[in-house]
Amino acid sequence: QERDDTPVGTPYVAREGSIVNATTALRGELETLRGRGELEAIREFHNLYTAYTHWMLLWSTGFRAVHDPVGRPQEINRRRGFVFIADKTGDGNAHHRAVPAPDRLLEQLVLYERHCEAVRSRTYLMGAGANPHAFFLYLDEKLSIQPATPALLSSELERFFALPINVSRHSLRSFLRKH
User: Crossing angle of helices 39-61/167-178, nearest 10°?
Assistant: First the structure.
């Protein structure tokens, strides 16, 4: 049977090399920030770590970044290898769906959850303000916790990857179709 190399959804898909380069650059920047004790470096590390984990979720599942795709830690089922994501807005859980998740993504989500627990406790002790229940968290300049919106995540990722973050959806589907 012949392979169909026609891109899915749009002719604009990311090349595998650009994804690898962006991921490598992201990881390098995280290593540079790791262990630095200044508050600004801690904030930068956290926000970039949030973007990196979100990046992994984007490229592993092909979800559409609308709002927080994982609302609560309970939406990660490690034992069965699924993540329940919502890539559309709406009332209730009508737009949630179970998506198979690679082990590495599941491990990353657990590590990120532990990281956020530590961030929540430290920012609370510092009196830094709100403590939303969103899964993906962003720290503003005052170290207040905010939900990490697609716009905030895009701004974190744009220095590593020039294409819109939603390109992962069509790129992943096109890659799977091709292979």
Answer: 40
106, containing H or E segment: helix 103-125
pLDDT tens for each residue of 29-86: 999 998 888 888 889 999 999 999 988 888 787 776 666 666 666 677 888 888 877 7
pTM exceeds 0.70 for this model: yes
Nearest to 175 by CA among 40, 53, 14: 14
Q: Among 44, 54, 45, which residue's Cα sits nearest to residue 22?
A: 54
Say if residues 69 and 45 touch (Cβ distance below 8 Å). no
The identity of residue 173, as a single letter, is R
**Nearest in space to 50 (alpha carbons), one of 96, 108, 133:** 108
User: How far apart (Å, rounded) are the C-alpha atoms in residues 1 and 152?
Assistant: 43
Arithmetic mean of pLDDT, 130-138: 72
3-class state of residue 71 by DSSP: coil
Query: How is residue 109 written in tokens?
Result: 């989500």
